[in-house]
Amino acid sequence: MTAHYDALETRDPAEREQDLFGRLPDVLRTAVRAPAYAALLQGIDPQDITTRAALAQLPVLRKSELPALHRAAPPFGGFVAQAPGAFSRLFTSPGPIFEPEAAHTDPWRGARALFASGFRSGDVVLNTFSYHLTPGGFIFDASARALGCAVIPAGPGNTEAQFELIEAYRPVGYSGTPDFLKILLDGAASAGRDVSSLKRALVSGAAFPPSLQAEIKARGIDAYQAFGTADLGIIAYETSAREGMVVNEELIFEIVRPGTGDPVADGDVGEIVVTSLDPAHPWIRLALGDLTAALPGLSACGRTNMRIKGWMGRADQTTKVKGMFVRPEQVAEIGKRHPELGRLRLVVTRTGETDAMTLKAECASPADSLSEAVTASLRSVTKLGGNAEIVAPGTLPNDGKVIADER
Fold first, then answer.
1. pTM
2. What is the distance between the alpha carbons of residues 326 and 356, in angstroms, rounded to a whole number?
3. How confident is the model at residue 251 (pLDDT cuts 50, 70, 90)?
4. Which pLDDT score is estimated for 314?
5. Rg (CA), the chain
6. Which residues lie closer than 8 Å to 218 by C-beta, 6 or more apart?
7. What is the rounded distance in angstroms from the CA atom of residue 246 to the CA atom of residue 248?
8. CA–CA separation, 136 and 127 (whole Å)
9. Tens digit of pLDDT for each residue in 306-323?
10. Please, what is the end-to-end C-alpha distance for the chain in angstroms?
């Protein structure tokens, strides 16, 4: 049995990079046919964007901004050049955010994630992600069918009906949240129903802590995790190596300092930014608001794309201090004013009955006046009082957090 979905997964990393960035200019030319991208990328010559350094100069589009943009210019905020009727399905996610599904095979790029989880052509798959309005169910449905699997479109809930489907069709695979898989297994054990045909699973959409992983494994199911979004489909997935997640093909994956578009140093925690190369609906530097960090080296499974640690929290750490919002972008602005600083963390506490801010800033060789200068920048940028505390490099944890609300 082959170990990989296709030869793309085992390419030399330099070959992959050359391929992705060789195609990026054409994708950018397609993107700017949409009015919102034309405005966002005004003055950019697509033929110049052929490296990561050049891409990092483009503005990020924050997913948190999409609901307002979609309301202002429905349905897609001006970021899609084609008419809605050119797509196969049209979805909505909370916000609302409106998402089209491209008409080509495996539009959400999930077949290789299922393959890495042990799914094969001819398998029967119980898909318990929701099929109602949101794309979750269809992401895994389309991916499984692209792999050659038969799909039971079960959706979530109604465990009694699920047991009947499992006993009739004997699915070998499960896709859905890890929580609902446990509910199914617990319910079947209590009711004396036979769900023993289930042998493998691809789970997403909820935390899958080691304790639950061990419990699912003890019940005879080999479960893997995938990280995805309703905008992009499957972004990264777990493999047999069980060492983080491998980034999906056809995506340019960046990790940036929260509140900026600036790539972090190797191994640092930062916000996920993704550029997709689907000409039907390209995303250019979509900042997801999720944190992760890259892992060094290549996966033991033989796949050569970047590996990440998985989901590590949210990058949007906006908080309110004395009635005013303080944002990660403001912390980043302070860092730009003082390039000698390393990691920054704005700690928000209470002193008596009053909000208080302390900006902790790493610096190897601080000048005597640095603390005072950073304190002045803190006040200038946030319009709020606070203090700066200069600390040694390595003092602040590498967790991507730039605002810590400790009230």
1. 0.85
2. 12
3. very high
4. 82
5. 23
6. none
7. 6
8. 10
9. 999 998 888 778 888 887
10. 55
